[in-house]
């Protein structure tokens, strides 16, 4: 009887000790608590702490950071480590470094306008590298501008409306070969997106319109220029009347007209 028990125990022990190593590791991993965390290098720790302070609002837009020496003292690291962290934050567009006696490191604005600038820079790089076609960017811009006009008719402020009217008045007084034409056109479409009340939408329209500069792809004769301005006036009129359906229709008509007059590329 005892011999049978000993034999059974022996077989059980043998089975347990013959478990494949990876099986034992998996079993241990299944019950182990996850208490580990990636250990950051000193430069990464400094960078992460400053980034978190900016994104949380602890460091506000335009605020000057402590000097490199003071940051090195606070973090208990070398000035070289601090300098590398700040350089990385500059590349991420979170801070600006200004030389001179009154210079230093300053928190950049992270509002929708700065986001639009960052998006434009990224789009420019992708277009330069050939990873995106101008046609793709232009198509996305058009898809965004129709709902932007509809929202602008619903949410625009008196200030938004005045800005749009000022732009159109300026467009009425200049010729198609005036160097201000592309800038005014970009400002007009960006102002509509801003009036939508959706800052993220405004950022994308700003970036897409500035980078593609659709005016440069038009057969911009005096007649096309006059028609374009009249269409802009019609869009503004619908926004002023808080009529989203008319605003959407006016923008659609404008975009269809532009596509008909795009130069062969």
Summarize the structure.
With 265 residues, the protein is mainly alpha-helical. The chain contains 12 helices and 2 strands; from the N terminus they run αααααββααααααα.
Description:
The structure is a single chain. With 265 residues, the chain is mainly alpha-helical. The protein is 69% helix and 3% strand. It is built from 12 helices and 2 strands, in the order αααααββααααααα. It has helices at 2-17, 21-31, 42-56, 68-75, 79-91, 112-129, 134-155, 158-172, 181-195, 199-212, 222-240, 244-260; strands at 95-98, 104-107. The protein has a two-stranded antiparallel ribbon. Helix 4 (68-75) packs across helix 5 and helix 7 runs antiparallel to helix 10 (199-212). It is elongated. The chain starts with a helix and ends in a 5-residue tail after the last helix.
